[in-house]
Amino acid sequence: MNNIEIGIVCKERYKEFSFPIAKNKNGSLIERHGNNRPYIIFFSDEKVFYLSAKTILDSNRKTTTGDKTNVIFKKDLYGNDREIAVNCSVINVMDRELFDSLYIKDSSFNNFQTDIEHYNKIMKKLFDVFNEIKYFEVDHIDEKTNQPIWKSDNEAIKNKKECEMVIKGYHYLIRDNKISPEIILDKPEHFFEVTKEYFNILKIHLLMKLMIMCEIINLLIEMIHLM
Predict the structure, then answer these.
(1) What is the pTM for the complete model shown?
(2) Which residues pair with 138 in a beta bridge?
(3) Residue 1: inside a domain, yes or no?
(4) Residue 3 located in a structural domain
(5) Is 163 inside a domain boundary?
(6) Which pLDDT tens digit goes with each residue over 178-188?
(7) Residues of 131-145 as b/e, b for ≥16 C-beta within 10 angstroms?
(8) Which residues pair with 9 in a beta bridge?
(9) What number of helices (H) and strands (E) belong to the chain?
């Protein structure tokens, strides 16, 4: 999985790494079984940022469809006729090299590129619920227990700024410039830097507008005093 892409799903792990690697918004672990799998929204050079995707069953349908932070699809991430939900209330984070080492190389169920429609709907939901998102990050795998050790909440929240730049940058880049998502997603190696750069450009423009507004307000105040 050296050529990991954005908007991909992974399913088959090595048996010795069958531990949970994702959390719910209340901090509880999402147990690993056939219905749950990670969906990678983007990556940096060092880290993987992923959501939790699961199959909708009769047993979880009511709670799953009632959660506004879930994106529901009639077809699963592999294109099969299976209803699924991708939860956008939590962004899980892991070292990229560590993440790659958990999954069976060359498995057709890993590093599977999902379509643009899935990706756009998920990124739109992340944008809509951004202020509600929680962050959890795996620090390392304990050699004795073979279980993941998680970073503190104070450490995990540091990922928020990077996620904001990518999620909001992607949203505004497409909205403001009428750019086809395919153009951005076709160059995944540049996705991270392009979306972040556009977000920074927007911040500069906003700051300039605020400075101009402040100058106008100060000028109006001076005019009032002179009256």
Answers:
(1) 0.82
(2) 150
(3) no
(4) no
(5) yes
(6) 666 666 666 66
(7) eebbbbbbeebeeee
(8) 39, 112
(9) 7, 8
Q: Rounded to an integer, what distance in angstroms lies between the CA atom of residue 62 and that of residue 67?
A: 9
Q: How many domains does the chain have?
A: 1
> Each residue of 51-94: pLDDT tens digit?
999 999 999 999 999 999 999 999 888 888 999 999 999 999 99
Its domain, for residue 110, covers 8-226
Q: How far apart are CA 138 and CA 66, in angstroms?
A: 28
Rounded distance, CA 136 to CA 134, Å?
7
Kindly give, in sequence order, each residue whose CB lies less than 8 Å from that of residue 110, ignoring residues fewer than 6 positions away.
Answer: 1, 10, 11, 12, 103, 104
Q: Among 132, 133, 138, 134, which Cα is nearest to 27's?
A: 134
* Residue 8 identity: I
Cα end-to-end distance, the chain, whole Å: 71
For 167, the token pair is: 């999620």
pLDDT of residue 1: 36
Quote the CA–CA distance of 5 and 26 in Å, as a whole number.
29
Reference 40, options 1, 9, 72, 77; nearest CA is 9
CA distance 153 to 157: 6
Token look-up 């918004």 returns: 25
Q: Mean pLDDT throughout 202-215? A: 61
Backbone φ, ψ for residue 79 (5° rounding): 90, 10
